[in-house]
Amino acid sequence: MEAFSPEIILAARKRIAPYLHRTPVLSSSQINERLGAELYFKCENFQKTGSFKARGATNAILQLEASERERGVATHSSGNHGQALAWAAARLKVPCHVIMPSNAPKVKVAAVKGYGAKVHFCEPNLTAREAGLKEVQERYGLSFIPPFDHVNIIAGQSSAAAELIEDHPNLDAIFAPIGGGGLMAGTALSAHYFSPRTKVYAGEPEGADDAFRSFYSGELVTELQADTISDGLRTCVGKVNFPIIQALLSDIITVTDAETIAAMRLIYERLKIVIEPSCAVPLAAVIQQKERFNKQRIGIILSGGNVDLEQLPF
Amino acid sequence: MEAFSPEIILAARKRIAPYLHRTPVLSSSQINERLGAELYFKCENFQKTGSFKARGATNAILQLEASERERGVATHSSGNHGQALAWAAARLKVPCHVIMPSNAPKVKVAAVKGYGAKVHFCEPNLTAREAGLKEVQERYGLSFIPPFDHVNIIAGQSSAAAELIEDHPNLDAIFAPIGGGGLMAGTALSAHYFSPRTKVYAGEPEGADDAFRSFYSGELVTELQADTISDGLRTCVGKVNFPIIQALLSDIITVTDAETIAAMRLIYERLKIVIEPSCAVPLAAVIQQKERFNKQRIGIILSGGNVDLEQLPF
């Protein structure tokens, strides 16, 4: 927590704004009627590269020294962070290398390459990924940009909630999904500094409930056998992220995949937007605890829309 | 054409504005790069009831005499117009009856009933529909609100293009899909009055190309064996609509269903929004004739987003 201040959050937001979309906030009178509450959906699925990850990646690169930017950046990712870093690096004219598992979906590999990053394949396990990253880093003198476990990433992700709070200053509650905790910690910090009466909640899949267990035991869970459709949330919360989450969240609500799929479908049908499963987890949590949030004004960060359209769960 | 003037179009827009969304305009840098043009998508899929049809239905009801509104309105429809009329009638506290074929999808029947309209079933053919409508009209003294072939419907639909032109005043071209021609005629009138240098184009499915044939023969085609995935465009152009289309359109471009599906998928992937097949027809036309529209600033009316998510063609 000591690493953060309102000034750091504001500076990150100002730093990255020229490169990113100020995403719109949507609502649906039918969803509101059904839930007896007012919901405001911050659409990061419309963000550059299709997820909020473009915010943190841009902030992290812009915080590097000129000499570091000249040499380039690296990460290991098979998901939204890899695409976001590749895009941000191209936009800022910084070389970018991404370590991807050899079994990564072709479409994700193509997206990273499409942004001009160099892809290095490794065996599909964490040891191989980390070894691959280390080797590439040393060979080219690259700066590692982690997906969530870093102050500059969290500060970048915080800008989504800061914009939502500016658009809707009287929220009773704000929800985000929790995976590694980059978006969640950033969301909690923005609410804490800029809307202190707003309570902050995480939605988490039951099949990857490390954050829930860490939050209520007080000890960070660092191993997880994830089993959930929400592929963006299959990681443990990071070390930098956990104390922020512990200090600032009111609750973590876990949901089943069936609840997530129902919420996802409701968003497709009523908001008419494309989202990925992870993105529907917070709405699933609100629906599950409808009575508790009755009559509240609730902000929901919709995290991303990178979904395989041939594999929609309905 | 004599039935219209800039004042009539402006009055309709002002009349319906309090009840409807001013829908957003989206763009995608990746779509623009791919086409070598600037595309602006007017998102009527976000409109009340999920399509532009809410505009015309609202305008038509608001133009009725007080005594007519008291008795109520009726239409026959298994698609977006039925839902739009049911919604607008409920919003304006006017009784509404909708004749629907006995084989209409349950979800569409439920939507119409959900807005509080009375549904009457008939055999699934035009004769039975018209007989059913006539009987219900006479029994309750209802005003028939047709789906497209009426001045007040066209004037209502024109407001979508009027808003787009206000947001983006320098368009070289504006596209809409053509079915009965309500949206298309309204779009052409708004461009004619408020942006006369903008050329107006229709996209039409090859498997329902009555508008194309009418436009180039000069004689209105009134029978059609439609065979297309674009279910909103399986009707012939109306008598009131045709002279406007003939006078004001630069071209009608026909596309195959395969081209429509590819354009639909591009919109899901890049704009991250949910649309129905009919809605993708204009983009399919621009993609087909990419060279012709190179470097142009092009407005596209995205007509609606009411699609069966279990039947997506990809």
Compose a concise summary of this entry.
Two copies of one chain form a homodimer. By secondary structure, chain A is an alpha/beta fold. Helix content of chain A is 46%, strand content 15%.
The name CATH uses for the topology of the largest domain in chain A is Rossmann fold
Biggest interface and its residues per chain? A-B, 18 and 17 residues
What is the CATH class name of the largest domain in chain A?
Answer: Alpha Beta
Which sequence of SSEs, written as H and E, runs from N to C of chain A? HEHEHHEHEHEHEHEHEHHEHHE
Low-confidence stretches of chain A: none
Q: Can you count the helices of chain A?
A: 13
Question: Any idea what the radius of gyration of chain A is?
Answer: 18 Å
Number of domains of chain A: 2
Q: Report the β-strand fraction of chain A as a percent range.
A: 15-25%
What can you tell me about this protein's structure?
The structure is a homodimer of 314-residue chains. Chain A has 13 helices and 10 strands. With 314 residues, chain A is of the alpha/beta class. Chain A has 2 domains: 6-51 and 150-311, Rossmann fold, CATH 3.40.50.1100; 54-144, Rossmann fold, CATH 3.40.50.1100. In chain A, the strands form 2 sheets. In chain A, strands 1-2-10-7-8-9 form a 6-stranded mixed β-sheet, with helices on both faces. In chain A, strands 5-4-3-6 form a 4-stranded parallel β-sheet, with helices on both faces. Chain A binds chain B through residues 24, 26, 45-46, 50, 265, 268-269, 271-275, 305, 309-310, 312, 314, and chain B through 24, 26, 45-46, 50, 265, 268-269, 272-275, 305, 309-310, 312, 314.
